[in-house]
Amino acid sequence: MAMDSEQKLDELARKLGVQEAELKRGVERAELAEKKLKSIEDELTTVGDQMKQLEKSAEKALDREEKLVDKILSLQSKYKVTEAKFEYGEMNIGKLNQRIDDIEDEIYREKLKVKKCSDELDDTFEDMIANY
Asked: Tens digit of pLDDT for each residue in 14-46?
């Protein structure tokens, strides 16, 4: 019976050694898994921070886009107003040029009338001097 007990003790000691070795390997694997988990958590935190930065950048880009769209619309509106003013100005210039031409023609006709009157007065004075 002592031999049986010793054999059982040896077998139990061997099983205990195997279990301790398995426990050690399990602890090492758990520690390695914890390190990997910590690394993945750190990487996830970094990715999360980068996502926040990208979201902020996207918001800023959208704000800039909205401002630029508003500016484009404003410039288009100003362009239309300026174009209308230009067309109105061109029309007025055309009318003014026509008016200038009409006035120049009228001045020329009036000069001819003055010349005719002047010539008639000259003829009248010459007749008066010659006859009196």
From this structure: 888 899 999 999 999 999 999 999 999 999 999
